[in-house]
Design a protein that fits this description.
Helix content: 10-25%
Number of strands: 8
CATH topology: Transcriptional Co-activator pc4, Chain A
CATH class: Mainly Beta
Number of domains: 1
Shape: globular
Distance between the termini: 36 Å
Radius of gyration: 17 Å
Number of helices: 3
Strand order of the largest sheet: 1-2-3-4
Structural class: alpha+beta
CATH architecture: Roll
Order of helices and strands: EEEEHEEEEHH
Strand content: 35-45%
Largest sheet: 4 strands, antiparallel
């Protein structure tokens, strides 16, 4: 029996100073909801790492940098664009069937991804959004699957989808 092993990726704990072998592709922040939180997109070989980061300032304790990382093959870039179209398109036109809030798991360059509709994307207005999960990779801090969530406003009005589409086009053209 042949064993398949995951490509080892590096956890990015300092988004401003990633390890030398990792290339920053883009950085954006959700100005509509959280001006002090950022998403940084990195390339690690044939993989995309998205680091959600910001400074947390709890009461009566020192401020600290919080990071959460999502890793997936670079092919996640065009995959997400296509899956969002699938979510938005009516089921009568080949979109997501009624009463479903997630895609079936799909193999993308050897890793299993799923896109779900998020009922609460984590912003102050508790608006909906989308979450991507990599079902073969665990978080660096616990045993949950790696995932990243975007609010509708960040994705559609805040420029995140435009950035994602630009990176997807560059990936498909071999110019990333």
């Amino acid at each position: 029996m042949t064993k398949n092993y995951l490509t080892s990726l590096i956890e990015i704990t300092d988004p401003d100073n990633p390890p030398q072998s990792i290339r920053l592709l883009a950085r954006t922040n959700d100005k509509l909801n959280y001006d002090d939180e950022f998403l940084s997109f990195y390339q690690q070989g044939n993989f995309l790492s998205i680091v959600d980061h910001g400074i947390v300032t709890p009461k009566y304790k020192p401020a600290y940098l919080s990071t959460r990382q999502f890793d997936a093959p670079l092919a996640v870039l065009p995959w997400l664009v296509n899956k969002l179209d699938f979510f938005i398109k009516p089921s009568s036109q080949g979109g997501l069937p009624p009463n479903k809030i997630a895609t079936d798991k799909e193999q993308v360059s050897g890793e299993y991804l799923i896109l779900t509709r998020a009922m609460d994307a984590g912003n102050a207005r508790r608006e909906g959004g989308y979450s991507i999960y990599n079902l073969v990779r665990q978080n660096y801090s616990n045993s949950n699957h790696q995932g990243v969530t975007f609010s509708d406003s960040y994705l559609f009005q805040g420029g995140l989808l435009d950035l994602w589409k630009d990176l997807a086009t560059k990936y498909q053209n071999g110019t990333l």
